[in-house]
Amino acid sequence: MKRLFKSFTFYFMLFSILLIYNQYIGYDSKNIILISFNVILNNLFKIDSFREIINSGPTIKTNTLFGETSVYLYICHFITFIIYGLFLDFIKRLLLKTMIEDLPDKDK
Predict the structure, then answer these.
(1) Domain range for 77
(2) Does 107 map to a domain?
(3) CA–CA gap between residue 73 and residue 77 (Å, rounded)
(4) Is the pLDDT of residue 93 over 80?
(5) Is residue 65 part of a domain?
(6) What parts of the sequence cross the membrane (predicted)?
């Protein structure tokens, strides 16, 4: 359980849920925070076929400018934030591993 609270993935998942809720209640009515500040989604949404697939999914009534948002958008946002968290956890693990290997031996 302690390891879970020390991982970037856990906090990125929580942050993603907060951003999704923020958009759901209408504070991000133009999807600026949900899409434009997410590097992966922002680049993927420039591809017309990807945008069509995301917008073709089941929709949820929201307090946004358009009145409804696709469930696929929320799922993609959540998955990309998991990817960001896993990437940072991987870097953290590599740094800790190199720091431990660089420690001098106590036996000498």
Answers:
(1) 2-101
(2) no
(3) 6
(4) yes
(5) yes
(6) 7-25, 71-91
Give 107's pLDDT tier (boundaries 50, 70, 90): low
What is the predicted pLDDT for the residue at 2? 78
Contact 18, 28 (CB under 8 A): no
Closest by CA to 23, choosing from 11, 38, 9, is 38
In a domain, 106, yes or no: no
Distance CA 67, CA 88 (A): 35
Whole-model pTM? 0.85
**Of 82, 61, 78, 80, residue with least CA distance to 70:** 61
